[in-house]
Specification:
Shape: elongated
Helix content: 25-40%
Mean pLDDT: 83
CATH architecture of one domain: 3-Layer(aba) Sandwich
Order of helices and strands: EEHEHEHEHHHEE
Structural class: alpha/beta
Strand order of the largest sheet: 3-4-5
CATH topology of one domain: Rossmann fold
CATH class of one domain: Alpha Beta
Strand content: 5-15%
Radius of gyration: 25 Å
Length: 163
């Protein structure tokens, strides 16, 4: 399909440096995805057209790259909803939807750039979740106030604290 549309398609592991111009690179090596998203014009996040739960939708969004993903976003449902509702991402239901979205964003760079910036803003607006979680956990783990020794009854059975 991509060849028929005039794209040069290459696997990353067999990438030839001499080729120039538009091309589709299939990443078949580890550790390359984040850098690729930074350079991408649009991104489709895998694992979402089949019921495996989806990969990280934030990786392309953080670079201002508009994101496409399929219906299976169990592992990233909240961010998928945020991206869809904001316009920074699109849920595609199959190959046809995917092609339509890619073509639209390629043909309309202003729209693509706007949607990419919206995706990036979704990331910015939702940063800090880890720190908020750690703060909540720390509050729960704070030691209980110490009671004077005469208020604790040391008998067989459960520990009883008297006020």
């Amino acid at each position: 399909m991509l060849h028929a549309a005039g794209f040069v398609v290459q696997r990353k592991s067999r990438l030839q440096e001499t080729l120039t111009g538009p091309r589709v690179i299939i990443l078949d090596t580890r550790g390359e995805l984040s850098r690729a998203y930074r350079e991408a014009v649009v991104a489709y996040v895998g694992g979402t057209l089949v019921p495996v739960g989806g990969h990280n939708l934030l990786e392309p969004a953080v670079w201002g790259t508009p994101v496409m993903f399929g219906p299976y976003t169990d592992h990233c449902a909240e961010i998928a909803t945020l991206l869809s509702e904001s316009g920074g991402g699109r849920r595609v239901m199959g190959v046809e939807d995917l092609v339509v979205s890619i073509e639209e964003w390629i043909r309309h760079p202003d729209r693509r750039n706007r949607d990419g910036q919206v995706a990036k803003q979704v990331v910015c607006d939702n940063q800090g979740a880890l720190m908020r979680s750690v703060e909540q956990i720390e509050r729960c783990l704070r030691p209980a106030p110490l009671y004077p020794s005469h208020s604790v009854v040391k008998e067989a059975g459960p520990l009883v604290v008297k006020p």
